[in-house]
From TrEMBL:
Name of the protein in question: Uncharacterized protein
Organism of derivation: Halogeometricum rufum
InterPro entries: DUF5787
Length: 350
C-alpha cells in the first residue's frame, strides 16, 4: 500500500493518523526518554486554537494514580471538585475555592462527581459534604503540540506561520512541531519555509511493507526550543487549561475518530498500514476523511440487519466490532504505560 492510498494529495487525515500511531510507539523523536509514559490524541485544543496532534508526556506513577478516577475524562467542572476535594468530610463550599460562577453549578458538579465515584458525598445537617477518594495526582509532565502538513509548501507554511508564532508566544504547549512528508531531497523543503525558529520539523517516510517499526521513519530536520514560561508553576490559569487538555486526551485518545465517522456503514473498513489500522471506504475505493464519512455521504448505506445476527453479537454488527477494537486498543495502551493496573498483552497491533 502506498502513502497516497492513505493520504491522497492535499488530504491530511490519513497522514495525521499515521503520525499519531508513530508517536504512540516511538515518542520522543530523538529516541531519548526520561521514563515518561505517553498519551496521544488528535484534534484537541482550546476555544482559540486546535492542534492536529497532542502528545502528553506523563509521569508513569502519576498516570497510574490517575486511573483511580476512571477511564473517562474529567471536564473543567469535575476537575474543580476532584482537585480540591478534602481528605476529611467538609461542606463543599468550605472545601472548594470560589469558582468564579454561581455555587449551584458547583453543586451540580459535586453530584456528577459522586455519581461517577471520583469523590464521596453525604448530606449532614442539611448540607452537602464531600471527601476525596484519593489525591488527584500530578501526572502531566509536558504537553507537545504537532501540526501535520504532509505537503508543506510555501503557501501552507505561510498559512501556518502566524498560528505557530502564537503557539510559541502563548506557550500553552511546552514544545511545538510541524510534521511533514519527507521528499528525499538533500535539503528538505520544509527547512526553507517560513516556520518560526522555535518550532521543530519532523519529516516522515512511511512504508507499509517495511518490517516492524521500520514502517515509519521520522527524521528530525530541526530541533524545537522549549517554550515553557519561567513562571509556569505559579500560573494557575495555564496549569488548569493544560490539565483540561490532558484530561480530554486521556479520555479520547487518537482513535476516537470513529465517534465522528460512520463505522456502521456497510462500506466502512479498517485496513492495515504498517503497524497502524486506518479507515478505508469500499464505495470510494480509497481513503476517506472524517468530514466525508458522515450520514450525508451519498454512498452511505446502513449495515444490513442480517449482519447483526450472522455470528455477530445481537446488539451490533461489524461497525460495533470496529468501535470495540479501537476502544480495546486504547485500553491496552493505557495498560502498557502502567502495567500494574492494566493488561500486559497486546490484543493486536494498531
Amino acid at each position: 500500500m502506498r502513502p497516497s492510498d492513505v493520504y491522497p494529495e492535499g488530504a491530511e487525515f490519513g497522514f495525521e493518523l499515521l503520525v499519531c500511531r508513530w508517536a504512540e510507539a516511538a515518542w520522543p523523536p530523538d529516541g531519548g526518554s526520561d521514563g515518561d509514559a505517553v498519551i496521544v490524541a488528535r484534534q484537541l485544543g482550546t476555544k482559540r486554537r486546535r492542534w492536529d496532534t497532542i502528545v502528553v508526556e506523563c509521569d508513569p506513577a502519576g498516570l497510574a494514580a490517575r486511573a483511580r478516577f476512571g477511564d473517562r475524562e474529567l471536564d473543567s467542572d469535575l476537575l474543580h471538585v476532584v482537585r480540591h476535594a478534602p481528605a476529611e468530610w467538609a461542606w463543599y463550599r468550605d472545601a472548594l475555592p470560589h469558582p468564579g460562577y454561581p455555587w449551584r453549578y458547583v453543586r451540580a458538579a459535586v453530584h456528577r462527581a459522586a455519581g461517577r465515584g471520583v469523590v464521596e458525598k453525604r448530606r449532614r445537617n442539611n448540607r452537602i459534604e464531600i471527601r476525596r477518594v484519593a489525591p488527584y495526582p500530578d501526572w502531566v509532565r509536558r504537553i507537545v503540540a504537532v501540526e501535520n502538513k504532509p505537503d508543506l509548501d510555501a503557501s501552507a507554511a505561510r498559512a501556518l506561520s502566524d498560528q505557530l508564532a502564537r503557539d510559541v508566544d502563548t506557550a500553552l504547549a511546552d514544545e511545538v512541531w510541524v510534521a511533514t512528508a519527507a521528499t528525499g531531497g538533500r535539503v528538505e523543503p520544509a527547512l526553507l519555509e517560513d516556520v518560526p525558529v522555535e518550532v521543530g520539523i519532523l519529516a516522515f517516510a512511511f512504508d507499509a511493507d517495511a518490517p516492524g517499526d521500520a514502517w515509519a521513519d521520522a527524521t528530525v530536520e530541526w530541533h524545537p526550543s522549549d517554550v515553557t514560561p519561567a513562571d509556569a508553576e505559579s500560573d494557575e490559569e495555564r496549569t488548569t487549561t493544560r490539565l483540561e487538555l490532558a484530561e480530554r486526551a486521556y479520555g479520547a485518545g487518537w482513535r476516537s475518530y470513529h465517534d465522528t465517522m460512520r463505522p456502521d456503514c456497510r462500506h466502512f473498513e479498517l485496513r492495515r498500514y504498517g503497524r497502524a489500522l486506518v479507515p478505508h471506504c469500499a464505495a470510494k475505493g480509497g481513503p476517506q476523511t472524517a468530514a466525508e464519512c458522515a450520514g450525508s455521504c451519498p454512498d452511505f448505506e446502513p449495515e444490513p440487519p442480517v449482519w447483526r445476527t450472522g455470528g455477530w453479537p445481537v446488539e451490533g454488527g461489524p461497525g460495533k466490532g470496529i468501535q470495540s477494537l479501537l476502544r480495546d486498543r486504547r485500553e491496552w495502551v493505557r495498560g502498557r504505560e502502567y502495567p500494574e493496573t492494566g493488561a500486559d498483552a497486546d490484543p493486536g497491533e494498531n
